[in-house]
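Supplementary Methods, section 5.1.

A reviewer requested that the exact input to the structure prediction be made available. We therefore reproduce it here, unchanged from the version used in the analyses.
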Amino acid sequence: MHTRETLVEDIRRLGVAKDDILLVHSSMKAIGEVDGGADTVLDALTEAVCDGMLILPTHTWSVMSNEYPIYDPEKEPACVGILPNLFRKREGVMRSLHPTHSVAAYSKNQKLLQEFISGEEQFSTPCPRQGCYGKLYDLNAKVLMLGVGLNRYTYLHGVEEWFGIEERLEKEALSLQIKLPSGELLPVSMHKHFKPNNISVSEYYIKMEKPFVQAGALKKGRIGDAQSMLLLARQTADITTEYLRKDKDIFLSHNPL
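The structure derived from this sequence is encoded token-by-token as follows.
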């Protein structure tokens, strides 16, 4: 059975440092049996970056629509698993105001935390360059794929968006509302991700594994029972951008790079 101590050791062995800015995509099931369950996993992740910042996606893209338009960050469940839903309720954790692609974050550095999560209500796309996913680049963050593959690497949606690939976003925007801490409802427009020819482009993100590894931007290891990957956000964005410059449609097929 895995414990908090053994999980922290596994996380450290993969290359996570105490002062890292760390985003975690996760599968609790993949980790295996843990003494204390999901809360122990969150304790281990928090300890691993005790002098940095821990971030988990708390996306709500699967439910937000013109028929279900109100995003309440205090109450709306995340659609991306057990760990994000437990994490967002923890003391000291703050959740961003993005209505479809919010994140929750924790740091002892309150200034860093506030600056990171602030401002997401201003934008109309899922992963804007000035939003949390873009700030991962600026902060030279790391991304831990804990028991999940590169098809869950939301950050690459951001890279495509920043590169300006128009076919990745719905032309017609949703009319949504964000419930602010004051209780006021803020109206916003939001363009959701678009599937060109009904293709889920993220399924083809896996083809970036080899160039990431060759560049030293991806390291593989095991955390608990979970096959995991640690990625360098800035480097993986730069590498992907170079490939998009050669062919903006690399994620529309299985064709090799």
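The two ends are 41 Å apart (CA to CA). These observations are discussed further in the main text.
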